[in-house]
Specification:
about 160 residues, mainly beta, 9 strands
């Protein structure tokens, strides 16, 4: 069961995602043609660590087994989507494949029963300022080549 609570006004969720870096590029995903890119990953489940969730989600979405190589940041984000106020806590990890040969090095599209169309693309880290990549604070951290662990709170309400 996902760590998510919802009512008519609010939605709370805990997510865990993995940054896959290869040849100075980062693998990002656009979901359901929503117009922006983010890091692959998803909801943590009850009684699952954030690290376990990251590894599971990357295997489910990207079809590659990974290990966590670095804790990058935690972003606690407050924003509005449609008619609900969202409170999202996301754990960001840098991951690497257990077998480099399994890593897809070309862009690809995957159709998922739950998430719909997943459009995976590789972007040069030095040029991501031209990409609608969210959350913005993570994009800025990567552009600054800041790989120190940090905790961010972003309130867009």
């Amino acid at each position: 069961m996902d760590i998510a609570i919802s009512n008519d006004e609010y939605y709370f969720k805990v997510k865990s995602v993995g940054l896959i870096l290869h040849d100075n590029k980062i693998l990002l995903v656009q979901m359901r043609d929503n117009g922006f890119f983010c890091v692959p990953g998803g909801h943590a489940k009850i009684h699952e660590t954030a690290q376990e969730a990251c590894i599971r989600e990357i295997e489910e979405e990207v079809n590659v087994k990974v290990k966590i190589t670095k804790d990058l940041c935690v972003i606690e984000n407050f924003f509005k989507s449609k008619d609900k106020k969202i409170h999202e806590i996301t754990f960001y990890y840098i991951v690497s494949p257990l077998d480099e040969k399994q890593l897809p090095t070309k862009d690809f599209i995957r159709i998922d029963d739950h998430d719909g169309k997943l459009d995976f693309r590789w972007f040069d880290i030095d040029n991501i300022d031209n990409v609608d990549f969210r959350p913005k604070i993570l994009k800025e951290k990567l552009m600054a080549k800041n790989y120190n662990f940090e905790y961010f709170t972003v309130n867009q309400l």
